[in-house]
Inverse folding.
């Protein structure tokens, strides 16, 4: 079982969890929301992946716990549209994937309509089974309400590519 830590507001985490649970056997991955209140209790969990959806500025007093949680992760998934204190994560030896509206992100959007999102993988990467996720565009059908959850859709897409 892989533990995936998501640093985000609880509402955003719930959207990601809902998107992932549609396609995942419960024994494959466990998503855990990491916040300033629970990080102390999570420092002994061996996370496989950490997702930085929101800024880690709120963890200023928890740098050592954040570094401990990230110490042996396989993947670090970073929102490239927010400011990240990279010095806190400097010693991490993980595969880094970036996502966002930034055109230099590993995974970004090519097109967004009311009913479809075209996600662009701009650099290939290996998933947990050593299968190559190739450069290309991936079409996702969405409903109008989901258009406001763009970052959550990208994170869900990345986790599915890595673990499913």
């Amino acid at each position: 079982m892989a533990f995936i830590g998501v640093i985000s507001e609880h509402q955003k985490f719930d959207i990601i969890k809902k998107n992932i649970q549609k396609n995942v056997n419960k024994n494959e991955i466990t998503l855990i929301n990491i916040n300033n209140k629970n990080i102390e209790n999570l420092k002994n969990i061996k996370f496989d992946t950490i997702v930085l959806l929101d800024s880690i500025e709120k963890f200023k007093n928890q740098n050592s716990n954040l570094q401990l949680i990230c110490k042996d992760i396989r993947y670090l998934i970073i929102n490239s549209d927010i400011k990240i204190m990279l010095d806190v994560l400097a010693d991490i030896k993980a595969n880094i994937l970036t996502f966002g509206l930034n055109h230099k992100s590993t995974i970004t959007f090519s097109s967004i309509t009311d009913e479809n999102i075209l996600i662009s993988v701009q650099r290939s990467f290996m998933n947990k089974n050593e299968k190559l996720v190739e450069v290309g565009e991936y079409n996702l059908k969405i409903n109008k309400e989901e258009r406001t959850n763009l970052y959550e859709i990208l994170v869900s897409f990345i986790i599915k590519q890595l673990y499913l």
Notes: The radius of gyration is 15 Å.
